[in-house]
Structure formats: C-alpha cells, structure tokens
From TrEMBL:
It comes from Bradyrhizobium niftali. Belongs to the binding-protein-dependent transport system permease family. The keyword Protease does not apply. The keyword Protein biosynthesis does not apply. GO terms for biological process: peptide transport; protein transport; transmembrane transport. PANTHER family: D,D-DIPEPTIDE TRANSPORT SYSTEM PERMEASE PROTEIN DDPC-RELATED, OLIGOPEPTIDE TRANSPORT SYSTEM PERMEASE PROTEIN APPC. The chain crosses the membrane at residues 20-40, 83-106, 118-138, 144-160, 204-225, 248-269. This is ABC transporter permease. Its main location: membrane. Gene3D superfamilies: MetI-like.
Amino acid sequence: MTSATLRHSVWILRGNPLTAVAATGVLLFILVAIFGPWIVPYDPVASNVSEALLPPSAAHIAGTDQLGRDVFSRLVIAARLDLAIAVSAVGISFVIGAVVGSFCGYAGGRLDRGVGRFVDVMMAFPLFVLAMAMVAALGNRIENIVIATAIINLPFYIRFARAEVNVRRNVGWVEAARACGESHFSVVLRFLLPNILPAMAVQISLNLGWAILNAAGLSFIGLGVKPPTPEWGIMVAEGARFISTGRWWLVAFPGLALMLAVLCFNLLGDGMRDILDPRMRT
C-alpha cells in the first residue's frame, strides 16, 4: 500500500466512523477466531447437566444451555468455524469467478454470451434454496457447505469480472501490451485481472457477511454443521425452543454475534467502496 493510498484510507476512516468501527469489529472477530481455543474458560462441548440453563452470571457470562455447556465458550469457538466456512467459500468463488469472468469478458462472442446466460439462469433461482438443495444432495458436511456456498457466490464474481474486463479490453494500455507481443492469456492475467481486483474487494467483503449468514441459515434448518459442534446457527436453533420459557440468552447471544459479524462485513464493504473510488481522491 502506497503512502498516498494509506493517507486516503485514513482520511476516509476519519470522515466515516462507521467504517472504522466495522474494520475494528472485523479485526476483533478474526482475532477471536484465531485465539479462541486459548481464551475460552470452559470446554465448549463438555456437558454438565447440574448447571443446565443457568442465566448469565460471573461464572458463565453468557449463561449455559440445556446441557450445561458454557454459551460464551461455544460462541467464541463457533466464530472460527463460521469465519473459516465464509472465507473458504468466498475465496474459492472469487478465484474461479474472477478468472472465468475475465477471460469471458476479454474474449467476447459466443463464449461470453453463453457464460452470461448461464449466470443469469443461476441467479434466477433463490440462491439459499439452491444451497439447501446442494447440501441435501451432497450431505451436510462442512466441505459440502463450503462448496455449496462457493457455487452460489460464483455468479456475482463472474458477472462483475465480465463487465469490468469488457470495458477495459480495448483501452490503450491493453493494446500496447498486445503490440509488445503479450499473449491473450498474459494480457488477462498480468494486466486486466490485477486492474479490476481493487473494485472486486468490495464484493468480497459483502459476500463474506452473506456467506456467514448462509452457513448459519443452513445449520438453523438442520442442513448445516452437525451438533454438538459449536456453530452460531445451531445455537440459535437450539435456543429457539426455550424462548417461551424465558431463557432469552440462548438465542440473544448467538443471534447478536451473527448480526454483528454480518453488519461489520457489510459496513466494511461500503467503506472500501469509498476508499477505492477514484472520485473520492479529488
């Protein structure tokens, strides 16, 4: 990152405190995911029925669930799993979608039109329902959740890369690269693709929040991670049965963690759009 870009980023963060808060929140979630096993006070899967359904207290700051497991410990450990699923899925879809979309946008013609129609057909389906169908068919294992989430994110990156490369494929510096003997493969990977990556970073941030929500949603309806693995969607689903009995903490804390994670990634995406927008540098 150049000094000019760094100064511009600091200026944007000062003028938009929500972006600074979102960046801090994302960093906090990442640190919790990395160091979670060393900071939790209890074993997140160990049951102790004698302490079941205890409200928040000094010993259990987020209470305990129906099996006496510490809710806070499960929340912290679940952050690693949910973030890992989201990062893996978005990373796969970003790499494949950016490369495929870039080559299609550069080549144009029948290939571009064919891929464009395929993307339109995919986006015509409710994407969460499509993820449900894939996980139900493949089995509710973590790797299948990652694959399903990656597939339903692919259309966003293919469409974005196609549009951006299509605009740039005949500009002067691309013509100059071809005139210097660069192959079409090299022009796309060395010149066009790096040029559109900053703009795609915004989409990555937004999709990370959506991927977390998608993974939690699959777990909530029983098609995601299997119990007793700590996961935010599972915790909300299990706690929902006890809302009518006044055990609010079983739903409130995992729901709050899920909401804050998605909100932070979405707000960070909005801030990155301002940072990467050339018009904001004037």
